[in-house]
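Reopening this one. Same input as before:
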Amino acid sequence: STPQQKINKLMVEYALQGKTVVRLKGGDVSIFSNILDELQELVVNNIPYEIIPGVTSALGAAAYAGIPLTARGYSTAVRFLTYYKSDVVTEAYWQELAKTSDTLVFYMSATTIATVVEKLNSYGIAGDVHIAVAEQATTCFQKIHTCNIYDFNVKLKGKEFISPSL
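Same output, byte for byte:
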């Protein structure tokens, strides 16, 4: 993983040399990304840019795995979330998430997945809810790990998922 500041520096450095710079990002460039940081850096340096949107990784990973994010009788909505720091989601929101029938897709949460499951379980998420982890999402190496959310501690807890994972 390359730090965002280094990416910004390299984009500016090569663009100012007159080179065409392509910042290729997996997934949608505007969902859980650093697009604002990058655009600010380009604007400050008077570097013209063009954004070519892609398919968000949640949609790509789900389609590749054959898992619908919404389906009649199961879920009529999907929420895109992130949980990589403990202060991102409030306890009240965890409680709401545990009660919803929406499909929940967590970005940047591979290292915090055990806490995500623990929070949802502690607020009484339904017993028939399943979890699917798309490891190396949207790549030819994508692997899907599934289990009932209450079986997570037995089947998936402690596993290190290779990024990008949803």
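So the earlier flakiness isn't reproducible anymore. For the record, The mean pLDDT is 92.
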